[in-house]
Write a structure and sequence with these properties.
With about 170 residues, this protein is an alpha/beta fold. It is about 30% helix and about 25% strand. The protein folds into 2 domains: about 1-40, no CATH class; about 60-165, Nucleotidyltransferase, domain 5 (2-Layer Sandwich), CATH 3.30.420.40. It is built from 3 helices and 7 strands. Strands 5-4-3-6-7 form a 5-stranded mixed sheet, covered by helices on one side. The chain has a two-stranded antiparallel ribbon with strand order 1-2.
């Protein structure tokens, strides 16, 4: 294999590569198992309204939706179609606290508007749906309070999204 010149006599050095090959076989098996495992453990996330290809997508332009935005200045609840607002409520922060009771009242007022405007079958899902958007540096507890408040007012489908993706959206 290899030889070293030691003056007049040559010395053969034999390297045993069996442990190296054993290690590579184990590492290859580990790599294959983890690659499959991470693929199986992946969660498939789709935007709201996008489902399997066989599902019919709703014509969202015709449906009235509810959106809640949480920011440092307060809460904003809007009901409408895109930029066309039916009604909106602004609930400012007072003494560094959000007005959760006022939000309950606003959600109670919004519910009949959603029922009236979404009377057709294709828009019925929007009667109990609320999009929630939280600005940067809003505490987790505030988001949970908003979700709990909405669920207590029979908004069963509350989703968290980017504030810029809200529909309808509060434009400052």
């Amino acid at each position: 294999m290899g030889s070293i010149d030691t003056g007049g006599k040559g010395v053969d050095v034999h390297l045993n590569i069996t442990p190296f090959v054993d290690l590579m076989v184990c590492l290859t098996a580990f790599l294959l198992v983890t690659a499959v495992w991470t693929n199986l453990a992946q969660i498939s996330i789709k935007p709201k309204g996008v489902g399997n290809p066989d599902n019919k997508q709703l014509d969202e332009e015709q449906c009235v939706k509810a959106a809640l935005e949480i920011s440092k200045s307060g809460l904003w609840l809007g009901v409408g179609k895109g930029a066309n607002l039916e009604k909106y409520w602004e609930i400012p922060v007072k003494n560094k606290k959000y007005g959760w009771d006022k939000l309950k009242k606003a959600l109670k007022e919004a519910k009949p508007i959603l029922k009236r405007e979404n009377g057709s079958n294709k828009c019925k899902t929007y009667v109990t749906q609320l999009q929630l958007g939280a600005a940067d540096k809003i505490t987790y507890q505030s988001i949970i309070w908003a979700m709990d408040t909405a669920v207590s007012m029979n908004f069963n489908d509350v989703g968290l999204t980017d504030p810029l993706s809200l529909d309808p959206r509060h434009i400052q």
